[in-house]
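for the recovery benchmark. tokens below, seq after
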């Protein structure tokens, strides 16, 4: 059964204006349990999005304006099928998507959890066990590492949760939301120090992860059915759980993994990837994650029509060898091809993707500048 987005979306969602303070955004996100907030114009049209990711990336103070952390708008239409929202969330790797009418006015918000609940209610979840959809090997952090390192690890790898390891065992978990709230609330905290209390942002970033990790942590077993995880996500309002095999951490499963397992993207990006020269499966998984992260960023600005990734090992490159990574991307507006060489194929791939991303962003910045100048010429300030 196919439903319209209007039937399961969240209505009456609080929205921000560009001149609102970042502190207000964080307060609303925390109290409403939302990972993203839409930003609207005075007329109510969607003009951007703010999420915990942008807050962590920009590191501005709570008295800064929302305009300093806003991300370009992405959305689905209120009369689209739910499958359209599934595809958008999958392609952009986001927690949720603003919903607008055909005139661009904000109508609501649809989150991963709304889609998962819909799948449960209509018995459309895929069968199978957790191990078939979990992310493995899992990216972790040691309990004694700094909060700053946790922040860097999340942003670099495009993950929102890190299992915390202490003496080789699972100790707890830390999320992007935990980091953002702890860092920003430091600006508001007053009063005398106490044990475990960090008064400034610098002190929080220097503190060990174990001081702010959530513990004990809810886990699932690799043999659990996918439906059990989906129901836990809805009931506990958590976005994911570490996966255990006996007492060993073997992966992590999130709401995005469930979306990925059920996605039916109407217009999938045809990605041709030749990475047979990568013998280590961990490299392949990391490369796929890296590609997915960058395509999500680019897809927020323009439609990707085609993409090719070729990884070749050089025959004569000295001791240890080296890799040539060529990445080609075709969008609605142009096509880009970059080749980089490095002993680490992930470094070469990241450089290639970063160069292409900067070119695309520069192109759209130039378009926005031209549009702004035209607007000023048509409607000069008196």
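predicted aa per position
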């Amino acid at each position: 059964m196919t439903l319209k987005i209007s039937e399961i979306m969240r209505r009456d969602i609080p929205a921000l204006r560009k001149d609102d303070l970042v502190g207000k955004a964080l307060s609303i996100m925390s109290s409403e349990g939302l990972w993203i907030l839409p930003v609207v114009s005075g007329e109510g049209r969607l003009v951007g999005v703010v999420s915990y990711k942008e807050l962590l990336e920009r590191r501005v103070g709570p008295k800064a304006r929302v305009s300093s952390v806003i991300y370009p708008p992405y959305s689905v239409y209120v009369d689209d099928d739910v499958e359209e929202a599934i595809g958008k969330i999958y392609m952009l790797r986001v927690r949720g998507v603003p919903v607008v009418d055909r005139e661009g006015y904000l109508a609501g918000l649809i989150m991963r959890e709304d889609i998962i609940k819909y799948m449960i209610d209509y018995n459309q979840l895929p069968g199978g066990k957790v191990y078939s959809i979990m992310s493995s090997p899992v990216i972790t952090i040691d309990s004694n590492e700094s909060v700053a390192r946790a922040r860097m690890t999340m942003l670099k790898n495009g993950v929102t949760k890190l299992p915390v390891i202490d003496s080789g065992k699972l100790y707890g978990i830390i999320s992007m939301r935990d980091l953002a709230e702890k860092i920003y609330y430091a600006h508001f905290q007053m009063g005398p120090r106490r044990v475990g209390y960090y008064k400034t942002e610098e002190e929080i970033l220097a503190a060990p992860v174990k001081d702010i990790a959530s513990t004990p942590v809810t886990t699932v077993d690799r043999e659990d059915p996918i439906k059990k995880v989906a129901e836990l996500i809805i009931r506990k309002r958590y976005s994911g759980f570490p996966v255990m095999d006996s007492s060993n951490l073997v992966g992590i499963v999130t709401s995005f993994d469930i979306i990925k397992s059920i996605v039916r993207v109407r217009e999938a990006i045809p990605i041709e990837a030749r990475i047979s020269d990568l013998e280590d499966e961990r490299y392949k998984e990391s490369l796929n994650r890296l590609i997915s992260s960058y395509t999500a960023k680019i897809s927020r600005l323009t439609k990707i029509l085609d993409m090719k990734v070729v990884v070749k090992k050089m025959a004569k490159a000295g001791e240890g060898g080296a890799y040539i990574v060529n990445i080609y991307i075709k969008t609605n507006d142009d096509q880009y091809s970059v080749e980089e060489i490095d002993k680490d194929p992930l470094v070469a791939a990241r450089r290639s993707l970063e160069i292409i991303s900067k070119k695309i962003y520069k192109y759209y910045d130039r378009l926005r500048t031209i549009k702004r100048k035209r607007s000023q010429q048509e409607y000069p300030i008196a």
